[in-house]
């Protein structure tokens, strides 16, 4: 018996398990036959990985279409555009405005008396002045999303600040390497302060990755952070920590644990902004970045080394005081470039992330 001879109900069951990759299986099924194309339509976009702005915007256009509601459950957004690539993106976005402005100038030269038409052209030019954003979903997100990975750099992440309030009623697992879903940069054109993501009672697992020194993870512990959008969170992962030791202190304050360092003068202004984490949070899993920052002999290098060592010390103190915290050893070498993608694929296939005992740091803290 061939695949297309199977009952539709059985095909749906098969496709629901088969379409859990970056999207190649769904696309392949749609080209087998007319019957398989129709039977797999619901599952074709069930699992999608987007690489770069072109793919992201193409998918965003599909999601925003009134007549198309993709049943995407697992979504990976990757974007690592360079400065020159982002400059090209900005230039392309501005081109319609330049073209419209040139049309206004040419019309004014050739038809100086036609004020009505000139005003119409000026209105058209003005409407093009605000460039198209490269944010993935300015108007709509797949409503069936369950697992979302946002793995972009800071240049691309800036465009996420302008998206409208997002409702993801089925979202269970979110990984972000930037400050999304917070509007943290204070842009003039943001809609309002606070999280982009609306209150999301379904969210159980949140993974925050400190991509660089501009990634303000500590802000997630403030009033507009986790307390606002993840009331039923169970697991909080804080990974690749290196730039800000206050993240660990914020975690301690958020679950009411007193460790040496939380009363230090430098931390007190931030400590006053920390909100309690939901009582549903069972584990806070902390992992520093690897390798350790090099010692170049300058003051900045010394500061980075001190911060890195403090992350270890504060984490070990936190683990000593509560079983709700787990401290993992840093990787011995830099993770593979596609490590985040592989983890997302495992979740799309139904495998939950968990740590192994051999990964756990068991070194006791120094006496404070």
Protein model, in words:
By secondary structure, this protein is α/β, with parallel strands linked by helices. The chain has three domains: 1-44; 46-83 and 137-310 and 318-359, no CATH class; 85-127. Helix content is 35%, strand content 12%. It contains twelve helices and ten strands. Strands 1-2-3-4-7-8-9-10 form an eight-stranded parallel β-sheet, with helices on both faces. Helix 7 links the parallel strand 3 (147-152) and strand 4. Helix 9 runs parallel beside helix 11. The model is unreliable at 130-134 and 185-192 (pLDDT under 50).
Helices and strands in order:
Layout: H1 8-18, H2 24-29, H3 34-39, E1 47-51, H4 53-64, E2 74-79, H5 83-110, H6 115-127, E3 147-152, H7 154-157, E4 173-176, E5 182-183, E6 194-195, E7 205-209, H8 226-229, E8 235-241, H9 246-254, H10 268-271, E9 283-288, H11 299-321, E10 325-327, H12 339-348
Parallel strand pairs: 1-2, 2-3, 3-4, 4-7, 7-8, 8-9, 9-10
Antiparallel strand pairs: 5-6
Helix pairs in contact: 5-6, 9-11
Q: Which residues sit in consecutive blocks of at least 5 with pLDDT less than 50?
A: 130-134, 185-192
- Per DSSP, what share of the residues sits in E-state strands of 2 or more residues? 5-15%
Give the spatial strand order of the biggest sheet: 1-2-3-4-7-8-9-10
Structural class: alpha/beta
Main sheet?
8 strands, parallel
Order of helices and strands: HHHEHEHHEHEEEEHEHHEHEH
Number of domains: 3
């Amino acid at each position: 018996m061939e695949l297309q001879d199977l009952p539709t109900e059985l095909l749906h069951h098969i496709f629901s398990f088969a379409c859990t990759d970056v999207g190649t299986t769904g696309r392949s099924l749609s080209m087998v036959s007319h019957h398989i194309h129709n039977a797999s339509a619901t599952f074709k976009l069930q699992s999608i990985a987007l690489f770069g702005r072109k793919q992201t915007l193409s998918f965003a256009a599909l999601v925003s279409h009134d007549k198309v509601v993709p049943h995407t459950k697992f979504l990976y957004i990757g974007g690592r555009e360079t400065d020159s690539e982002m400059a090209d993106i900005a230039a392309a976005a501005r081109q319609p405005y330049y073209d419209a402005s040139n049309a206004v100038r040419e019309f004014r030269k050739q038809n100086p008396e036609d004020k009505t038409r000139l005003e119409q052209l000026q209105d058209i030019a003005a409407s093009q002045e605000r460039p198209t954003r490269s944010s993935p979903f300015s108007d709509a997100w797949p409503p069936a999303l369950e697992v979302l990975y946002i793995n972009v750099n800071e240049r691309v992440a800036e465009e996420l600040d302008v998206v409208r309030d997002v409702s993801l009623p089925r979202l269970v697992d979110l990984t972000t390497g930037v400050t999304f879903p917070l509007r943290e940069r204070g842009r003039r054109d943001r809609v309002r302060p606070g999280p982009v993501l609306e209150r999301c009672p379904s969210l159980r697992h949140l993974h925050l990755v400190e991509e660089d020194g501009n990634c303000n993870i500590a802000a997630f512990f403030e009033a507009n952070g986790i307390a606002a959008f993840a009331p039923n969170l169970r697991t909080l992962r804080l990974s690749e920590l290196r730039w800000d030791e206050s993240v660990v202190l914020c975690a301690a304050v958020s679950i009411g644990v007193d460790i040496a360092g939380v009363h230090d003068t430098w931390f007190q202004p931030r400590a006053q902004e920390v909100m309690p984490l939901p009582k549903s949070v069972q584990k806070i899993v902390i992992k520093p970045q690897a390798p350790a920052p090099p010692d170049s002999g300058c003051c900045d290098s010394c500061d980075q080394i001190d911060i890195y060592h403090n992350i270890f010390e504060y984490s070990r103190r936190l683990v000593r005081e509560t079983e709700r915290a787990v401290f993992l050893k840093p990787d011995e070498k830099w993770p593979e470039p596609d490590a985040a993608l592989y983890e997302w694929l495992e979740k799309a296939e139904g495998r939950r992330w968990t740590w192994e005992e051999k990964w756990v740091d068991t070194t006791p803290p120094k006496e404070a």
